[in-house]
Amino acid sequence: MGIELILKKRNNNLISRITNSIPLHRKTAFIGICEDLFSKDLDQLFLDKIEKGAENHKESGIGLILIKKDYQVKTNFDFFENNEAKNNVAVTFKLNLQ
Fold first, then answer.
1. What pTM was computed for the model?
2. pLDDT (tens digit, 9 = 90+) per residue, 46-82?
3. Which H/E stretch holds residue 15?
4. Which of 98, 82, 73, 84 has the alpha carbon at shortest distance from 17?
5. What is the C-alpha separation between 98 and 93, in angstroms, rounded?
6. DSSP code of 40?
7. Closest by alpha carbon to 14, among 58, 64, 73, 63?
């Protein structure tokens, strides 16, 4: 499975769902990033990531933090396996356009 992107406009909301496969060894770390997005102050979380240097930007979660922090989007994460027994994550953003 490659990256799948779905965009929909429903009433005054823009909904995007991005699905991608992730390596099994990255799943736990990615779940940790997701948990931080819902449990920590986003401004502080962003500063913490910057201060740590976030050497590997592909694994830092900074992009997700910025989207949630700067655009106040509702965010959801779904983890699942597909028919090929690959681990996948689907990230859904709901942005109010008003």
1. 0.76
2. 998 888 765 655 566 788 898 888 888 899 999 988 7
3. strand 13-21
4. 73
5. 15
6. S
7. 73
